[in-house]
Design goal:
The complex is a heterodimer. Chain A has five helices and five strands. Chain A is of the alpha+beta class. Chain A folds into two domains: about 80 residues, Beta-grasp domain (Ubiquitin-like (UB roll)); about 80 residues, [2Fe-2S]-binding domain (DNA polymerase, domain 1), CATH 1.10.150.120. A five-stranded mixed beta sheet of chain A has the order 2-1-5-3-4, with helices on one face. In chain A, a hairpin with a 2-residue loop joins strand 3 and strand 4. Chain A starts with a strand and ends with a helix. Chain B is of the alpha+beta class. Chain B folds into three domains: about 220 residues, Aldehyde Oxidoreductase, domain 4, CATH 3.30.365; about 140 residues, 2-Layer Sandwich (Aldehyde Oxidoreductase, domain 4), CATH 3.30.365.10; about 325 residues, Aldehyde oxidase/xanthine dehydrogenase, molybdopterin binding domain (Aldehyde Oxidoreductase, domain 4, 2-Layer Sandwich). In chain B, the strands form eight sheets. A seven-stranded mixed beta sheet of chain B has the order 12-13-10-20-17-18-19, sandwiched between helices. A six-stranded mixed beta sheet of chain B has the order 5-4-3-2-1-9. In chain B, a hairpin with a 2-residue loop joins strand 6 and strand 7. The chains are: A alpha+beta, B alpha+beta. The interface between A and B is large, with 77 and 78 residues.
């Protein structure tokens, strides 16, 4: 069985799995990293949103064989480390606004929010309501309004 | 077991339980409602309906009374307190509010109160059922009583140790203070205050005027775990040997396996460990869920037909119309004018974001289950029955859920996991695919709601409602086998209809206005188990109250009143008017709005509370025609104001979250989200087909006003915003468009905006191009 090596939350990991198994299952079922959640498996609900080389992606739709040894995968578990703190400013904003209800979608929401702010910054601007409208992550508890407020607040400290 | 009555309004009999540290237990208490009178127009008082006097929550609370003394609070030697809540937390915030209740009575920081979820305990009978927005209503007094008894024990111990009387002592955040400056911590007292025998004690609860925690906004106690990814759901739990398991399901509702044509081949697929036919399909166990998906897609199965293979939306609509009960004879003024309004409410999916998941480890003489369950006692009993075990051989661990919304009332996923685990002789972690959730999951059945009202001069003489629905499965009863049997045992679904559907209808549906003669009745078609059906947040009122409020707007129009002034004139009591006025004022009701936009106002009373909402909607082309990739736009609710009176709000911040969240359900159900039945299956298979509210549908302004306490007991919250917000949005839509919408969601009969997934194989393959979409 092929061995796959990549960087996960700052550490190099190796795992034996068929090339075609999607990264979400490698993370969750084989490596025990359960922050990224399953919600659909077809890149729709975005509950598994994580970062690859700093950009948002959905591990449910990436066969593990497509990863290179130098690819850096960051899940919610590794997000604070990217800023060298216990919590990323976006997580702080989440706590401040008491965003979560059941909490299931929140790791994906936070990872999507951080990437959305970075995307706006790459375009030389701050995040807008139109950007927030583009976030596709489902929240069945309906925390959408607080999500918007928290993203705007968190962006100010990023 | 006998119930000891309340001694006085705030004095309760409790127990101190024998143990190594302080353990205190408590019983139930009564809550009592009240009613008042009207204004300017000439409303004809309507007799209170059953729901006005004794509603569903009273019934659920009554059901908990005989066994509530099983609720215990323990103080530990590290100064913390713990409590195993016999309910399921799935986002409502009840672990936080329960911790607040304990913190209040114990005088301990909320951070030092640890609330976990109790395993299924059959001795609790009806007292471990999470439903009907009832948790806070029914647990408010017993939880506080137990905490108060624990504190009293520690004060007694401190008095003994310090050689003082209890009256000399005061507490502050986990520390007992003596007048001479000496102190003792709860941690130090926990062991000293332990009782060697179980005995009854009387306690006095804190006076509401002195509340330090209850009624003050508090953030969720599990927020940190949620935002760091540490919060564990069934799917995240590591149970030795419980490998990923999924089920290959039939192409039509309730179909069954005739034959698997390539079992041997699939058993040999990479990663697959076991394959077997179970009652609901073909179960596959593998090293990863991805390999389960591959195996399910590779299975070649011949299927027997299901229960509704020839049925579609239109056949059911015809059936409902044919089964509508006739209106009664007009009474009162024969010269009265009539309004006649009829609405269709399409199928709704109550799927949470965390799909149905259960871990089952079935051995020869015992079974262990882990799952998020609203009715864990019933689950335990059903598992025992399925395995031929005694309930004592079945352990059911209740886990926090990633949403519930009624979806976790039944044991479906657990019974599948148990069957698979037994057949494989191995533990399984069984998870539903998202597509299973839409196509094989429980739904809120479609319904039609017809209203006829008569009016003359300034009075409404009669208000009649005929609600006709495909049957809803209420056979979870009150969450245990005895009440469940009451629903399942009588033939032809009579138990379900007579004892539950009609009961729920009569105990929840109400008309909060003085409309003279009120007559509302329910009829159902089909058996409760023809479809996979079940409760959805707010039950019948999610539709019935919307029909009512839309009809109220039409009455107002016919009688030359504004929707606001009319409601104000006809609402039954001052408290209701106050809530309506608060919402109207905050929303600046009647403010000038551009053409194509409008406000809508609505009122609802349920769960021992009152609620009003004002929605503003934008139906102008530049909004309606926005394009979102694989999304539905249409009219957008731009602003929402909700005023809510729940009697006593325990945690206003949690209440606000529930209101905002319920509003998102409401917006989707009026504007965008439904299931389409087509030749025996639902076409939807993904969140990009089933258009639940997404960010592009969310109002940019939402304001929730929590009314000051109007009572010294709390009402329910979880389902409360649904009916009123749906109504306000529907009424706003009517005013913006200048015509009354006849079906909800309003886009249900539009050409399908998506291509349905095939039904065989039953689930779609995961994509491979995720790296092309990084952002």
């Amino acid at each position: 069985m092929p061995k796959h090596t990549f960087k996960l939350n700052g550490k190099r990991v190796s795992v034996d799995a068929p090339d075609d198994v999607r990264l979400l299952w490698v993370l969750r079922d084989l490596l025990g990293v359960t922050g990224p959640k399953y919600g659909c498996g077809i890149e729709v609900c975005k509950a598994c949103t994580s970062h690859i080389n700093g950009k948002a992606f959905n591990p449910c739709s990436v066969p593990v064989g497509q990863l290179n040894a130098e690819d850096e995968v960051t899940t919610i578990e590794g997000l604070p480390k990217t800023v060298g703190k216990d919590l990323h400013p976006m997580q702080e904003a989440w706590l401040e606004h008491d965003v979560p209800q059941c909490g299931y979608c929140q790791p994906g929401q936070i990872m999507a929010a951080v990437a959305k702010v970075r995307e706006a910054r790459r375009a030389g601007r701050e995040i807008t309501d139109a950007d927030l409208d583009e976030i596709r992550n489902i929240c069945r508890c309906g925390t959408y309004f607080r999500l918007r407020e928290a993203i705007k607040a968190g962006a100010q400290h990023m | 077991m006998t119930v000891t009555p309340e001694v006085s309004r705030r004095r309760f009999l409790t127990y101190v339980v024998a143990g190594p540290t302080v353990i205190a237990a408590a019983k139930w208490a009564d809550a009592s409602p009240g009613l008042l009178g009207g204004t300017d127009m000439q409303p004809i008082p309507s007799a209170p309906g059953p729901a006005d006097i004794h509603d569903l929550n009273d019934l659920l609370t009554d059901a908990t009374k005989p066994t509530a003394d099983m609720i215990t609070v323990t103080v530990h030697k590290d100064g913390t307190a713990s409590f195993a809540l016999p309910r399921v937390e799935s986002g409502q915030g009840i672990t936080t509010s329960s911790a607040m209740l304990i913190a209040e009575e114990l005088d301990l920081p909320v951070s030092k109160v640890h609330v976990t979820l109790a395993d299924a305990r059959p001795e609790l009978q009806w007292n471990q059922f999470t439903a009907g927005s009832n948790t806070t209503i029914s647990t408010y007094t017993p939880i506080r009583s137990a905490a108060a008894a624990a504190k009293q024990q520690m004060l007694l111990a401190a008095a003994r140790e310090l050689g003082l009387s209890v009256d000399d002592l005061r507490t502050d955040q986990g520390v007992v203070h003596a007048p001479d400056g000496r102190t003792m911590t709860y941690g130090a007292l926990a062991g000293l205050a332990a009782s060697s025998e179980t005995k009854q004690v009387e306690v006095q609860l804190a006076a509401p005027s002195g509340f330090k925690v209850i009624g003050k906004p508090h953030n969720r106690i599990d927020a940190h775990d949620a935002v760091t990814g540490r919060k564990k759901y069934a799917m995240d739990l590591k149970v030795r040997g419980a490998l990923p398991t999924m089920v290959c399901r039939p192409p039509t509702i309730k179909g069954t396996v005739k034959r698997v044509r390539n079992l041997a081949h699939v058993k040999q697929m990479l990663g697959v460990t076991d394959v077997a036919v179970i009652s609901t399909g073909v179960a596959v166990r593998a090293r990863t869920f991805g390999q389960c998906i591959d195996a399910i897609r590779a299975l070649k199965v011949s299927w027997n037909p299901g229960t509704v293979d020839k049925e579609s939306d239109q056949t059911l609509l015809k059936e409902l119309k044919a089964n509508e009960l006739p209106f009664g004879d007009q009474t009162g003024n024969p010269a009265a004018s009539v309004i006649d309004e009829s609405f269709t409410f399409w199928w709704k999916c109550n799927s949470a974001l965390e799909p149905n998941t259960a871990i089952a480890d079935v051995r020869k003489t015992k079974a262990t289950i882990w799952s998020s369950l609203q009715s864990p006692i019933l689950t335990q009993q059903e598992v025992a029955k399925q395995l031929g075990f005694d309930t004592s051989q079945v352990t059911v661990h209740v886990l926090q859920g990633g949403g519930a919304f009624g979806r976790r009332m039944f044991s479906d996923v657990v019974l599948e996991a148990v069957e698979a685990s037994q057949k494989f002789g191995k533990p399984v972690k069984l998870m539903w695919h998202r597509t299973d959730e839409f196509r094989a999951g429980r739904v809120h059945p479609m319904a039609i709601s017809h209203i006829r009202a008569t009016y003359s001069g300034g009075s409404v003489y009669s208000f009649e409602q005929r609600h006709t629905s495909v049957a809803t499965d209420y056979t979870m009863g009150f969450g245990e086998m005895m009440t469940s049997s009451g629903a399942t045992t009588p033939p032809n679904g009579e138990g379900n209809f007579l004892f539950y559907s009609q009961g729920v209808w009569n105990l929840t549906v109400n008309v909060p206005y003085n409309f003279g003669q009120i007559d509302h009745s329910l009829n159902e078609t089909r058996q409760y188990d023809t479809f996979h059906s079940g409760s959805v947040r707010n039950l019948y009122n999610a539709d019935a109250a919307v029909a009512r409020e839309l009809a109220v707007d039409q009455l107002a129009k016919a009688m030359g009143q504004s929707p606001y002034a009319f409601r104000k004139a006809f609402l039954k009591d001052a408290q209701s008017v106050g809530v309506l006025q608060t919402a109207a004022k905050a929303a600046r009701w009647g403010r000038s709005m551009p053409a194509g936009t409008a406000q809508g106002i609505a009122f609802h009373s349920e769960y021992h509370g009152k609620i009003a909402a004002v929605a503003e909607i934008d139906c102008r082309p530049h909004t309606v025609n926005r394009r979102v990739h694989q999304g539905v736009t249409g009219p957008r609710v731009t602003r929402l104001v909700i005023a809510v009176d729940v009697g006593l709000p325990v945690n206003p911040r949690g209440l606000e979250a529930q209101m905002q969240g319920g509003a998102m359900d409401a917006i989707g159900q009026i504007l965008t989200e439904s299931l389409h039945l087509h030749n025996g299956y639902f076409l939807e298979g993904s969140w990009d087909d089933y258009y639940y509210t997404r960010q592009w549908n969310v109002p940019k302004e939402i304001r929730v006003i929590v009314m000051p306490p109007s009572s010294d007991t709390p009402g329910g919250a979880g389902e409360f915003p649904i009916a009123v917000t749906k109504s306000a949005v529907a009424c706003a839509l009517t005013r913006a468009l200048g015509k009354v919408p006849r079906e909800f969601p309003i886009n249900h009969s539009d050409p399908l905006p998506f291509t349905p997934f095939p039904t065989e194989p039953p689930i779609p393959q995961s994509r491979r191009d995720g790296l092309r979409h990084t952002r």
